[in-house]
Amino acid sequence: MTTTVMLAGVGGQGTILAADVLAKVASAAGFDVKLSEVHGMAQRGGSVDTTVRFGDVVHSPLTDLGFADHLVAFELIEAARTLRYVRPGGRLLVNTRTIDPLPVLIGAVPSPEGLEGQLQNEGAIFLDAEELACEAGSPKSANVVLLGALSTGLEFAEELWIKVITARVPAHTVEVNLRAFRLGRKACIEGECML
């Protein structure tokens, strides 16, 4: 059986690093892993979608609409945009932040409204990753907060996550990132993730 995790955000949010950590954790656990990245003007705040698939044998890094087991959305608009990839009964983990795209910023279109309600109707689990990242010591660690929350829905040992994060992030950020991971994990284990 193959597990599919999709991570959706915008450039600069750390989706690619988060996907790389997840892929390395799955690989270290002995699974075949495939990873795919789609960058849409990532350096200018464009969409960045990354899919990590792992299992005994994985034939493709891509997923079809309605097949992702987990969607980790780094902000609300990206959550709404990629929601169609989640399978029925799949897990939808959403950072409560909104980053307006360029057409909204220049006034060409209005900012979307009612996204939280729409996502809540789909069973989304909401998490203020920025707030927890600041608590950990760096707002840049929101991606690792989301990994911590994601980890509660996967069967990898916490120690394996910690080992991979320690090896993958810059040495001077290890402690902050480990705090961020633990805070994200704790938020979901203790039910602070908002349903």
Plain-language structure description:
The protein is of the alpha/beta class and 195 residues long. The protein has a domain at 2-99 and 113-124 and 154-170: Pyruvate-ferredoxin oxidoreductase, PFOR, domain III (Pyruvate-ferredoxin Oxidoreductase, domain 3, 3-Layer(aba) Sandwich), CATH 3.40.920. It is 39% helix and 23% strand. The protein has eight helices and six strands. It has helices at residues 15-28, 76-82, 102-105, 115-121, 129-136, 142-151, 158-168, 174-189, and strands at residues 2-10, 32-39, 47-55, 68-73, 86-95, 125-127. The protein has a six-stranded mixed β-sheet, sandwiched between helices. A hairpin with a 7-residue loop joins β2 (32-39) and β3 (47-55). α1 (15-28) packs parallel to α6 and α1 (15-28) crosses α7 (158-168). The longest helix is centred in the last third of the chain and has 16 residues, at 174-189. It is globular and about 45 Å long. It starts with a strand and ends in a 6-residue tail after the last helix. The mean pLDDT is 87.
Task: Give the topology, please.
Layout (H helix, E strand, L loop, with lengths): L1 E9 L4 H14 L3 E8 L7 E9 L12 E6 L2 H7 L3 E10 L6 H4 L9 H7 L3 E3 L1 H8 L5 H10 L6 H11 L5 H16 L6
Parallel strand pairs: 1-4, 4-5, 5-6
Antiparallel strand pairs: 1-3, 2-3
